[in-house]
Amino acid sequence: MFTNIDEDEDSEKVTFRDNSKGRVRGSSKVASTEDLHLSKVFVVETLNFNLLPIAQLCDMGFKCTFDEDGAMIENAKKGLVFHGVSHK
Known about the structure:
Structural class: mainly beta
Distance between the termini: 25 Å
Helix content: under 10%
């Protein structure tokens, strides 16, 4: 879903829950529909899944709800955008 990746030679690292670290290779814009995209999404080495920037979604007017069953991301104007299931 990345439109292109802006490589970062002086990359920073992100710390995961188990205190291991992953190098940020760069950033990109992610487009899920023609009128919905997230900018400055980090591309992190060693991740086998995608991370959504929750703060950016909230700033864009989305409502993000998390519970033991997973996550729901809603847009007041368009309704349900995403419903993810927890991987317990």
